[in-house]
Fold this sequence. Notes:
The chain has helices at about 5, 105-110, 130-145, 155-170, 180-200, 210-215, 220-230, 235-250, 255-265, 270-280, 285-290; strands at about 15, 30-35, 40-45, 50-55, 60-65, 65-70, 75-80, 85-90, 95-100. The protein has three domains: about 5-175, Jelly Rolls, CATH 2.60.120.10; about 180-230; about 235-295, Homeodomain-like (Arc Repressor Mutant, subunit A). With about 300 residues, it is α+β, with helices and mostly antiparallel strands. About 45% of the residues lie in helices and about 15% in strands. Mean pLDDT is about 80; it is low at about 1-15 and about 295-300.
Amino acid sequence: MEEWNDYLDYEKQEPFHENTLLFKGLPCDILSGIGLPGHRVEPHWHEAAELIYIIAGTTRLVVNGSIFILQPGGLAAISPLDVHSTTVVTGAPAESLILQFDLSSWDDIHKYDMSLDTSKNVSDNLITGLSGQRIREHIEAVREIFPDQHSRYFALKSYIYMIMDELYQRYPAWSINDSRSRGLLDRLHGFNRVLVAINANLALPPTLAEAASLAGMSAPAFSHFFKRKLGKSFTDYIHELRLRHAARLILDTKMLIGDIAYQSGFNSLNFFNKVFRRHFGMTPLQYRNRCPHRQSPETDRCH
């Protein structure tokens, strides 16, 4: 599991909801681009299913707190409503092709194909083996045709449908667009409300019971959902968010360490010093002394 700070930025407050638009006449949207080393797509989610194909470079993908390193030829699938982010690993630019699918097409297929067990929810995000090989061949064809999509529209559409067929065989549960999906969407909106409430008052965030109520769930269901989406328990999330907030104040202000501890939600300076040292490998004062010029806003950030 990667470091929490690498997964959800303090400044962002919440994974954002991304609206997806279909490419005209196609059952998906096609996105391509090149990211420089360090480029990051912030944690987000959407109702569409997503297929990521890495053409060049190395990309770190995080899905619901789990980490995957994707290199050229790598394929990964993102289920609808899953919180995910990507970062280009330092070294060389990364090029990728992303397909985002409208799941109404899965529903149409399922009307005529009752043979697949849609209760089987495949959670493996990486696509390998023969299925991965076939998808890779099809998506390379899409990549080749896409710049000339208007004159080769039917060829482009046929390869997209072949990709969809492979994904449908692998992820049959994507075809279920019923009350369970709508319920998950409602829970995700509630989850975002909780993250905003936590960030609004770190010193006095909502309790687990209050957060569960805000999310419209029972406390046990909320705890399970929260950990699945962020890879951290509710308590650990608040604890580490406070530590990061304190670290920012230590470097960017001249506040006393004790005042920073209390403002960040720690009621005991001794406890704050203990957990800070455990998390950062040094005391708060050592953390400040390693980069004293950070307290001047005119200077560059140190690393």
